[in-house]
Structure formats: structure tokens, C-alpha cells
Amino acid sequence: MTLSDELRISLDGKWRHVREESRVRLAELDLAADHDLDLEAARERTFNQLKDLVPTGVPAAGYRKEHGGTGDPGMAVTGIEMLAQFDLSLMVKAGVQWGLFGGAVENLGTEQHHALIPKIINLDMVGCFAMTEIGHGSDVQSLETTATYDPATQEFVVHSPTKSSTKDYIGNAARHADTAAVFAQLVTRGQSHGVHCFLVQIRDENGDDMPGVTTADDHHKGGLRGVDNGRITFDEVRIPRENLLNRYGQVDEGGAYSSPIDDTGKRFFTMLGTLIRGRISVGGSALAASEVALSIAGRYALKRRQFGPEGSEVLLADYRMHQRRLLPLLARAYAYRFAQNQQTARMDRLQRSDEPDAQQQRELEGRAAGLKAVLTWHASRAVQESREMCGGAGYLAENRISTLRGDIDVFTTFEGDNHVMLQLVAKELLTGYAAEVGGLDPLGMVKFVAGTVTDVVRERTAVSQLIQRLIDARPGGGDDDHDLLDRGTQLSLFEDREQHVIETAARRLQRAAGADAEEAFRIFNGAQDHVIRCGRVHIDRIVLEAFTAGIARCEDPEAADLLREICTLYALSTIEEDLAWFMGHNRLSDARAKTVTTLVNDQLEKLRPHLLTIIEGLGVPEATLGAAFLLDEG
Hints:
Helix content is 53%, strand content 10%. The protein is of the alpha+beta class. The protein has 24 helices and 13 strands. A hairpin with a 2-residue loop joins β5 and β6.
């Protein structure tokens, strides 16, 4: 077994068998984009490919056995990620059908709705996830669509009261969905009980809009040509009372509302928390796409020559600037893969449990939000940098990267704006997972933080015994420049930065104590950049810890040694990017700070001979890269 095989085994993680099988089975489906197809043909091709996925078992994996699935949430997420290596349109369409739509039915519905899951798995019911509105994207609690209960007919009346309440950018809505999971304000007996989810048939058996339903096509987008995004409006559409997905809220025949969770905000975020798998899949799939782009750019760098001494030409991979552009992104891809694997394993454990631990669930939700932001930003950066590293050839569709760039762009918006995602992470950190605080309401956040003692910050940055041992064993004195190569020193720097940022953000928000709503919002708004920074440095820390833990699990000594060098590059390049903070807060002296760039360059020198091995370790088979310029001879 080669060194690259050992790296791939480590990166593949717990669901290695799913990745290995997917690399073979998906390659057989001929998923390469056909740029000669028009928009409608591209959509139909993707829909037909969706049908080919049913026999793979991935669609059924995400559902409980008692509902008709096979009960393997980790396989479901991993399978979606592997689709992203081949075709992001197919990945998105699969995610909408079996992740978002099907996930809403299973997690928000009850027994009567669970009977629909075999039809969803087999595509006998094709759905869409109608949450986002023109006027409300990330702020889902303020959706305008209403579902008003009529006790005379025992029906809900679903209605779009304004233009801004139009459901938009909805995958599957323009052509293929017959049913929508519609998020709307539940109103009964003149009182609103917040956002709930309802099943609404939007098309009949002939594909025509149902009475009162109007669908429209979003037509061409920046990418994802195979996904039929569309708009939906409702004009007094009546649905049976039973179409309310009623796990967290029920309306009886007479119109009385009841819920196992009294607080509207807490109920809403509990509902969204059950749909966490979608957020995890978005981040993981973006990462998978970045691995494809970096694999193409890396192999090109080992083939393409430019300039050189006395008329000779030098490989792109041997230029220091090219190494600085490519290798740190590869190191991040490795780091993020270990973090994503760890997150998927935690999600799998929680979703297999009949009574998941509430604090672990909230921690997962925060981590998923933060990783989604970091991974999708990384993917956008990695794909764009890969395109540029391949010059004009990278702009040709036949070399795939330009298609990846268009397709990946929207991932930073999927599941919510990334800055909102990091704000959610920070909120969980700052409030210590306080059950009584829900939502992202600035006033509620600052009022609670103002009365919170921040001595629990250290507890929130608690680490495993392995990490703590490394921190405890770091070199003492602080004067040795080379201690920056020590893993314990790196871990300590990341943890210390996180703790400081959280504590100082909490102190800034504490100024809102006793303030009125307008002043509290002003204080929050003034500190928002600091709040979001809390989320970012928290994710940096858990990623480094996940990478460190992943190395410890690697059974091959040579592979473990190479992973350590890659991890060091990740840590040093992250420190280098935030060098101003480490210097400004006296965490690094001027002398030590000046060595960081030298140390990064030293790591590039160490890793250059292993570039192809590192690329192959990502596990994207060369035959499936779909880049014509890698096939050229000479």
C-alpha cells in the first residue's frame, strides 16, 4: 500500500467504505457535465441521474429503519459529499429531495407523515423545501407566509400576503417537485404561534400547478444548471389539518394549539436543530468540491512549466509563490476534512439516539454553523485560486474548474449567510448554551450576556486529554523561535486567542446592562465584528484539535509523519494570516513573529517533494477529475 493510500485511509474516516464504493459506482454513472445541453435538457439529465442513485442505498441511509430507511445518518452525509466530487447539481438536487424535504417530513412530522418516507426515497413523491422568501432569507423567524386554521372545514389556508413573502430560490420548485415543505406562520383563533412546516401539494399528476398555487422559474443562475430553482406563491390554498408536520406543534379539530415546547423561540430553534444534517452536508460538499479543484490545480502544477534560468523552464510547483498559493490550501483541505469527519461522527451518534443529550445537540448546531461558514468560504477561495493557478486553461469549461467556480459560489449562501452562521456560533459561546435564550435577537443576546458571569469560558474551551497533554508538554520559556513548530504551542496559541476574544466580546456586550432596546441594539451592532470573530477563532481551534486527533488515529507511521508536517503548515499559515492579532495582543514578540513567514516557507520546502502524494491522499481519482488539459501528452 502506498503512502498516498495511507493518507486517503486516514482522511476517509469512519465511512471509508462509503467513499470507496462511491468512487467506483459514481464513476460508472457518467456524471461529467455536458456543456452542450440547453437548460431544460441539463435539468432533465440531472433528474434522471437522481433516479440512478436510489439503488445505491444512500437515499435510504438518512432515514430510520422503522420509517423505511436503513438508519445510517453518517452514510447519508458521506454519500452526499461524494456526489459533490462528481456533480454539484446532482448533489444539490439529492440534498433537496432526501435531505431537506425528506428530512423535514421525518424530523418534524409524526407517524402519519412517516408513512410517506418510502415514497420519498423512491422518488414517487418529489419535494422541495420552501423556506426562503424574497424578503426573508436568514431571518426565518420573520417569514411572512401564513397558514391560518379554519375550524369550519378543518383545513389550513396557506397564503402569500405580500410580494416579499414569495418563496424563492427553491430547488426543485420550477419543474420537478409535486409537493412542498412550506414554512409559514401558524395562525389559529387569531393568534400566531410562530413558524411551522406544512406539506402542500403544488402540482397535479400532469405537472400543472394546483389551484391557488403559482410556480415560476428562476431560469439561468450563476451555476448549478441541473437544478430547477423556482418561485412559489400561494393564494388562499387549502390543505388538510393533517398536513401540518406536528411533532412540535399541534392544532386540534376545534383550533386549539398545543406544543411540548411552550416558548415560541425555543420551539422554533428546536425544530431547525433537527434539520442539522443539511447544514453539515452543505459544508462537507463544498469541501469535496474544493478537493477536486485543488487536485486539478496541483496536478497541473506538476506538469506545466514556465520561464527558468538560461532559457530553460521550471515546473510551476517549484516556484515558491506557487507553493504559497497551493500548499496552504491543501493543508486546509486536510484540516477541514478531519474536522468534518469528526462532526459527522458526532451527528451520527446523536441522530441514532432516541434521547440525544440537549447540550451536545446545541454544541453540534453551533459547530455545524461555524464549519459551514469556514468550509464554504474555503471552497470559494480554493476554487478561485485553482482557476488562477491554471492560467487561461483553467477558464475553459473542458478543464472543469470554471464550472466548479460557478456551482460552488452559492454554497456560501446556502443554509444562511456565513456571517450570520458565525454570529450563531458566537451566541452559543457567549451564552454558555443557555436554554432560556433563543434565536439571534440582538436585544435578548446582550441582555443575557450582560448578566452572565464569564468564568465558564475556560470550560467552553476544554479539550481532550490528548490535546491537554500536548499543551502541557510545550517548550517553556517562550524565547525559542522554534517552539512555534511545537504542536502544544500551536494549540495553546489557538486556545488562548479564542478565550481572549470571547472574554473581551462578553465585556463589550455587558455595557448593555440596563439599556433600553435601541441602545442595546446599538451596542450589539457596534460589537458585531467582534462577535463574529468569536465564531471564527473558535472554529480555527476545533479544526486544529480535530487534525491533531486524526493524526493520533493514523496507524501508519510514515503517513502520520507526513500528516504532522501538513498540520504544522495549517497551523503556521493560520497564525500568519492573523499575525497582527497575535502581535497586537502580545502573544508573539516581534522577534518570534518575524520567524513565522520563514517557518511557513520551510514547511513548503519540506512538503514540495510530497506534493503528488498529498494530492492523491485527498482521494479524488485522477480518472474522474474531468480536466482535459491533464490528459494532454508531452
